[in-house]
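Deliverable D5.2: sample structural annotation.
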Amino acid sequence: MECAIITTYRCNARCQMCNAWQNPSKPSEEFDPEILNKIPAGMQRLNITGGEPMLRKDIHRIVEILDTKSDRLEISTNGFFHDRIIGIAEDFSDITIRVSVEGLPELNDKLRGIDNGFDHALRTILRLKKMGIKDIGFAMTISGDNCRDLLDIYTMVASMGVEFANAVVHNSFYFFKEDNKIGNISEVEQVMTEFIEALLSSPRGSFKKRMKDWFRAYLNVGLLRHVQGRQRPIPCNAATDTFFVDPWGQVLACNGSPAPMIMGDLKTQSFDEIWNGEQAKKIREMVRTCKQGCWMTGTAVPAMRRNPLGPIKWVLSNKLRVMRGKHIHLDNSQD
């Protein structure tokens, strides 16, 4: 299984596509890190997110506990508090870090509402790279406001040899938003299609990194389908393959639903009681009939792992098309 820990809804950024900063959790109400000991070991991936997780004064203890639960522990951050991030990386050298940006410097700082935000984000990545932290990179949420910077940001990350995670704007309880929308859909479609083709023609030197870009292309096909209002390419298995923990210690199915789908509470229950309880069964039925159609990394990547044949066939087919100078098929259809 995979899990994401929403450590806080407090945030120092003022992002236009997310209103968490207007709905902060109270430090006094946020979960005690010790409840995270209840999460089972052997998780395939654990993500520490927010809000901005570096605002938690006990973030080091959170990392310390979760580091025992998975071989891949990831922190999603805006990179502003680079000294705190570096301090964690010094103690946990196998940590994965993704630093969020919304474009090149001027646009990033405008959309994220944080002065010198790009400067701090880049400084974080450069310092982690100098330290020798291997799994580092940027993340970008694609919208109608920043799509023009997408290919330039990809050129930057590929030349730096770091990773690049992607999302598109969504509406859900997690973002405290119901009015995110893309008006210039045709422009976004064109840019994302070009980006998908660029990923399939990855210039990275490492074969492993090139292959990751090829499957990232498939992930972006799902993002484009979401922009177009179409169904997910692979069914969702939230509350089966994945779960979330919110700042109050509640176990949720996902972060994409209109309202939280609460399975239980780690403050008062064991993980087994939650996972095998009647409420969890009800939530899994809600997931099965969910029409939200979200496609975010937390649930999309596990779905790809559970159903690898479709992504593999799409990648092989469209990689060959790009090599022959043809345009890609965004669906699984063939010539």
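Annotation notes: The chain is about 40% helix and 15% strand. Residues 207-227 form the longest helix (21 residues).
The annotation will be released with the project's public dataset once the embargo ends.
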